[in-house]
Amino acid sequence: MVDAVTATDPRDEPPNEPVNDPRTDPRGEPAPPPSLDVSGLAYAYPDGHQALFGVDLTVARGERVALLGPNGAGKTTLVLHLNGILTGGAGSVTVAGLRVDPSDRAALAEVRRRVGIVFQDPDDQLFMPTVREDVAFGPANTGLRGAELAARVHEALALVGMEEYADRPPHHLSFGQRRRVAVATVLAMRPEILVLDEPSSNLDPASRRELAGILRSLDVTVLMVTHDLPYALELCPRSVVLGEGVIAADGPTRDLLCDEALMRAHRLELPFGFDPRSVPPPHA
Ligand SMILES: Nc1ncnc2c1ncn2[C@@H]1O[C@H](COP(=O)(O)OP(=O)(O)OP(=O)(O)O)[C@@H](O)[C@H]1O
Ligand SMILES: [Mg+2]
Question: For atom 28 of ligand 1, which residue has the closest CA?
Fold first, then answer.
């Protein structure tokens, strides 16, 4: 076991400068920075329980990556660091070149626009009288008004197939519809990376399939926390296994799911009779 990592003083950190990826594309243009770069992230909760022990994870722009791991592995703790809800541990998180720095409020606001987190329970995310107001809430906070705001709301609802529900109260919708609206509230911010915590949980098979279609159609980087391994295989060419606060494996989803020793070691179980080799690999 690694010793508990104590909080670092943010003043010890380098200044919050955009970090350019030194790699270049074939035409010699500087490549865009990765959507997400987590380096040496370690975190202990205030009660002293250490949940992360030095996580390194880079997600390139446009990738869809599944974050797998048993209960208590640290997946949600990691997600809560991506937009600065949790801070104060060691290491760094950088979103499209912008460092998550709790002492820089302007940078933090921009990070929160760039990282759209869809929580497991849509009711944590929907609190306005109508769907339209819920989806407008974030963009309105960034200063969008009038026709521009209306167009943004329409765009986000169209992406999840919920335009017809704009004037309905969210609490009158089904769970699956509320999850779609929760995705729309995040898409309305035009995020750099969409982070979903258990997106398929509590969905019936048709809603689960429809949400997969929506996620596949989006032109956005996706990090998806899931215990639904067939869903990870269907949607994410790459998976990362988090085990006891460290990255235990990182590779093509199918390879990981076919690695019986890895699966056993991290309490990952495929549904009875499911053969990952029988599913064609998803397109990136
Ligand atoms: N507020 C907290 N205070 C202290 N310890 C916590 C707190 N929240 C989570 N933990 C602990 O941190 C560890 C990681 O928890 P986390 O919620 O990140 O796991 P997870 O991988 O998301 O699990 P699950 O699959 O059950 O959602 C667990 O051991 C958990 O008990
Ligand atoms: Mg969790």
Answer: 72
